[in-house]
Amino acid sequence: MGRVFNYLCTALVVFFLSACTKQLSLYKCGEFMCSDGAIIRWNQSSVEFAFDSSVPAALRNTMTDASTSYDDVILDTKILIDPSNISAPHYKSDYASLNEDGINSIYYVSGEWPWTTKIPGSLAVTLTRYSNDGIIEADVFIKENAIGDPSKTNSTSTYYYKYLCAHELGHALGRSHSSNTQSLMYPSINFNQKIDTANSGIRGFFSLFDLQIFDEAYSVKPSI
What we know:
Blueprint: E1 4-9, E2 12-14, E3 17-19, E4 46-51, H1 57-73, E5 78-81, H2 95-98, E6 105-109, E7 124-131, E8 134-143, H3 155-172, H4 202-205, H5 208-217
Parallel strand pairs: 4-5, 4-6, 6-8
Antiparallel strand pairs: 1-7, 2-3, 7-8
Helix pairs in contact: 1-3
């Protein structure tokens, strides 16, 4: 089947391309992914990510918190993210080539956002590369100040950054968007919703539906 590029993220899924925004429509799934499925998975026990040096420390910490919380939930594959690991190749406008370097990376894109026209309103994009054996590489791109300055956030914006990071890691683990409005992978963020910031960890984001999807692909720890 060869190598296939799927572009995944936080608000809308289109086969080969997705992103995050407030209001976009769901499109039909393609050959590899369906709208509510975790069909493609990593066939290895751990997946390591590195940050580009441009990613603010506050955002690195938030992404690390999200990865640690996933590890509390998923049994078969561990996400390894160290906030001090800034060894990822530097971001470049030829973003597709970054998804061919064999390094799982997280980027903070300042200046021109490549998906402005393709996906209006997008906040982040995750590129995931596959082989016949499953996922072999994932790269997360987060737009500069997507939800305000991540270094100067209040409890509400911190919640949404956690949501954004958790959503992107869901894509990196093989999930596409879901039509289930309670799912973490629902293709929009409702910035007007009332939130409980005291329960803003990953378990607060996951619905039973999400846990069932991950259980099919990776197995969920019995304590969840």
